Amino acid sequence: MVEPPYVDAVDWSTWHVFWVDERVVPKDHDDSNYKLAFDGFLSKVPILPGKVYAINDALPAEGAADDYETCLKHLVKSNVISVSAATGFPKFDLMLLGMGPDGHVASLFPGHPLVKENEKWVTFIKDSPKPPPERITFTFPVITSSANIALVVCCAGKAGPVHAALGNDQNSDPLPVGMVSPEGELVWFLDKDAASKL
User: Fold this and answer.
1) Which residues of the chain have pLDDT under 70?
2) Is the separation of the CB atoms in 160 and 96 below 8 Å?
3) Phi, psi dihedral angles at 131 (to 5 degrees)
4) Residue 5 dihedral angles phi and psi, to the nearest 5°
5) Residue 39 to residues 24, 43, 152, 191: CA-CA distances in angstroms?
6) 92, exposed or middle or buried, with CB in 10 Å at 0-12, 13-18, 19+?
């Protein structure tokens, strides 16, 4: 999308960019999702900086999560983000998710209490099993209120959780990736290795 003819075919003025989750590190830190997105995408497309909503990296995890939720609520109130009629949570047009080798999505990890959070829009974690330990994350009610989700998974090390989510096995305690079920469409994008156990 960052090269012709695609970059010229998109109406970038309509785009607003948010982070489903972010590590609580400075924006220029190698662990920052913002840095990854900026270096690989945002610096190459004409999305207005005022429509890119990064977390406030000067705040601790709890403050950053509260600040991001306040930002989302303001954008809902001003009709920048719509609301799901079914859930009352913000409804994003498209959410891009990845998956960790343990089956986590966003910063919602298997067996962690945050998987069951159903009131907050954005929350924080200080004991992430994957470094860095402090992160903010959308909650599942926000994720599942999305109009569309693209779930991108690659590498053989993730084939097990892909099989657990998409295979015929019925697990009474599903991995977080198996709980991704948007109001609209969910499309999985798998490389050959990630799909190897299907």
Assistant:
1) 169-172
2) no
3) -65, 155
4) -90, -5
5) 18, 6, 19, 23
6) buried
Give the residue among 25, 174, 35, 170 at the shortest CA–CA distance from 104.
174
What is the chain's mean pLDDT, rounded? 95
Give dist(CA 55, CA 71) in Å, integer: 10
- 134-191 per-position pLDDT tens digit: 999 999 999 999 999 999 999 999 999 999 999 876 666 789 999 999 999 999 999 9
120 DSSP 8-state letter: -
Evaluate the CA torsion angle 174, 177, 182, 185 in order and state its sign.
Answer: negative
Q: What is the CA radius of gyration of the chain?
A: 17
- Model pTM? 0.94
